[in-house]
Amino acid sequence: MNAAAPAKLKVATTSLAGCFGCHMSLLDIDERLFELVEKVEFDRSPLTDIKEVGNCDVGIIEGGLCNAENVEVLRDFRRRCKVLVAMGACAINGGCPRSETT
Predict the structure, then answer these.
(1) Does residue 14 contact residue 77 with C-beta atoms inside 8 Å?
(2) C-alpha pair distances (Å), 89 with each of 31, 43, 44, 63, 81
């Protein structure tokens, strides 16, 4: 008898004010993305080009909060994701989302 396959985790990602470097690092896992897709279903992410986030198990945020739009995106993710993960220096430590020129 075949056991039913375990349900995939539904994962969404977004970038706030930042360089998008953490997303690029995720994409840099190359062919291992195929193994990942067998275990998770991506909602909003650069892999799917879905613009609106649905209800998800895990939300991954990169980038710092720089403006009211970033705050609203973060609040929406918090409402729609069971677990919210901050990824990268900007999201975790409030890194510098922009540079000043003198």
Answers:
(1) yes
(2) 26, 23, 21, 8, 21
DSSP string, 10-69: EEEEEE-BS-SHHHHHHHTTTTHHHHHHHHEEE-SSTTT---S--SEEEEEEESB--SHH
- All domains of the chain, ordered by start, with CATH? 9-93 (3.40.50.700)
| Side-chain-facing half-sphere of 75: CA atoms under 13 Å | 6
Take residue 38 and report the two structure tokens written for it. 């067998």
pLDDT above 90 covers what percent of the chain? 36
State residue 53's pLDDT score: 87
